[in-house]
């Protein structure tokens, strides 16, 4: 009937239920469709911005899992932060198998030798090789921006963000070293480890300084360090006026005092006649000089040069070997280890509780993850932290 009755039409209720069911199915279909789109085409990774040592704003992925490190000391910083496994390739210095090696970070990570090569050492990057890497790095970290491939050009050629770091030192530019640790730590989600490293270095340096702080200057022995490496091995005249181990324990570094090597606190050469005139109380030999062979280098000179034979420290056996520290940039852990040894020699009563070799391994274990003193010392004829026979 099609009258004006309010009575329900037969079969109306099932039709309403069918319409509701169809609407639910349609909604579910839309949800499934959107989920499929999300899975097939995920949202792009979140990005963030850091400011590198050149003052550039660099956009990085939110989660960095693959990197390469270009330039002297860059892989060292990655190892210090305990994320060396993020490296998908290395420069060619990591693959070399030399008799001598004074890089604790590399000794603790022999697997670096098996990584693909993306360029030559000291920042001589090869963009074409980088683009063939599989997997591709998400970030390139680079030290010593003025050496090797220009970081801006490298980023343009590869399309990979390049973050420049300033490795600094443990002397006047310690803040730059800490800033690089923090910058890399921020980029890689290792802020806590970066702060732990800063605290470790600060605590060790404070301990070294405190042990000798009250000794009057006229009671401090004079010292000279020879054989310091700088872009390769050098003879005994090569020194460092700003040598941190001497500074930390308050040794009188004759290369820094008046009449010394001048205002440059980095690597300098001193005339042999000046060393003889100084006649230091103690001589220390940076064992990197052994790379020059048995017929050259600082040890050979001390043993054969008549001028050095006149030195009191040579005649009385006060010549001591210290670990090479300036090896593919500065090895900060070795600087601390050398400082404790130097302190032990110059002020035995103030360092009576220190066994230098054990202290070195304590430092290496925290900084690079393994005790590598014995392995490194073996390659340098076990002359580190010992009296060097020169007569």
Assembly level: single chain
End-to-end separation = 129 Å
Structural class: alpha/beta
Average pLDDT rating? 89
Strand order of the largest sheet: 11-9-13-14
Quick summary:
With 391 residues, the protein is an alpha/beta fold. The chain has 15 helices and 14 strands.
Structural write-up:
- The chain has 15 helices and 14 strands.
- α3 links the parallel β4 and β5.
- α7 runs parallel beside α13 and α13 packs antiparallel against α14.
- The N terminus is likely disordered.
Highlighted features:
391 residues; 4-stranded parallel sheet; 39% helix; globular; disordered N terminus
Question: Which SSEs are present, and which pair or pack?
Answer:
Blueprint: H1 12-40, E1 47-51, E2 57-61, E3 67-70, H2 74-80, E4 90-91, H3 104-107, E5 117-120, E6 124-125, H4 127-132, E7 139-143, H5 151-158, E8 162-165, H6 174-187, H7 191-212, E9 222-226, E10 238-239, H8 244-249, E11 252-253, E12 268-269, H9 272-278, E13 282-286, H10 297-304, H11 306-309, H12 312-315, E14 319-322, H13 332-346, H14 356-368, H15 373-379
Parallel strand pairs: 3-7, 4-5, 7-8, 9-11, 9-13, 13-14
Antiparallel strand pairs: 1-2, 5-6, 10-12
Helix pairs in contact: 6-7, 7-13, 13-14
């Amino acid at each position: 009937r099609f009258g004006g009755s309010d009575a329900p039409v037969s079969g109306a209720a099932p039709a309403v239920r069918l319409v509701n069911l169809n609407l639910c199915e349609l909604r579910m279909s839309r949800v499934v469709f959107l989920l499929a789109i999300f899975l097939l085409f995920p949202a792009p990774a979140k990005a963030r911005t850091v400011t590198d040592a050149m003052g550039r704003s660099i956009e990085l992925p939110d989660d960095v899992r693959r990197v390469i490190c270009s330039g002297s000391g860059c892989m060292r910083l990655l190892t210090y932060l305990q994320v060396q496994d993020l490296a998908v390739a290395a420069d060619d210095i990591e693959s070399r198998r030399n008799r001598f090696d004074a890089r604790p970070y590399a000794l603790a990570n022999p697997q670096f030798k098996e990584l693909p090569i993306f360029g030559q050492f000291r920042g001589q990057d090869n963009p074409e090789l980088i683009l063939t890497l599989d997997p591709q790095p998400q970030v390139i970290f680079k030290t010593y921006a003025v050496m090797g491939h220009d970081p801006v050009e490298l980023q343009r050629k590869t399309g990979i963000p390049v973050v420049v770091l300033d490795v600094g030192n443990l002397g006047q530019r310690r803040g730059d070293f800490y800033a690089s640790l923090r910058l890399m730590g921020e980029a890689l989600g290792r802020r806590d480890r970066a702060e732990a490293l800063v605290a470790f270095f600060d605590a060790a340096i404070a301990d070294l300084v405190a042990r000798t702080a009250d000794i009057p200057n006229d009671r401090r022995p004079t010292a000279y360090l020879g054989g310091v490496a700088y872009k390769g091995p050098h003879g005994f005249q090569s020194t460092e006026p700003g040598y941190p181990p001497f500074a930390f324990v308050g040794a009188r570094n004759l290369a820094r005092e008046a009449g010394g090597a001048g205002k440059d606190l980095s690597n300098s050469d001193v005339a042999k006649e000046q060393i003889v005139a100084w006649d230091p109380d103690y001589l220390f030999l940076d064992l990197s000089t052994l790379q020059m062979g048995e017929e050259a280098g600082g040890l050979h000179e001390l043993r054969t040069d008549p001028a050095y034979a006149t030195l009191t420290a040579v005649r009385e056996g006060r010549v001591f070997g210290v670990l090479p520290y300036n090896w593919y940039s500065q090895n900060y852990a070795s600087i601390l280890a050398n400082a404790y040894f130097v302190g032990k020699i110059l002020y035995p009563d103030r360092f009576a509780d220190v066994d230098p070799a054990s202290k070195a391994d304590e430092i290496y274990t925290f900084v690079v993850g393994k005790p590598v003193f014995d392995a490194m010392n073996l390659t340098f004829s076990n002359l580190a932290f010992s009296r060097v026979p020169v007569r």
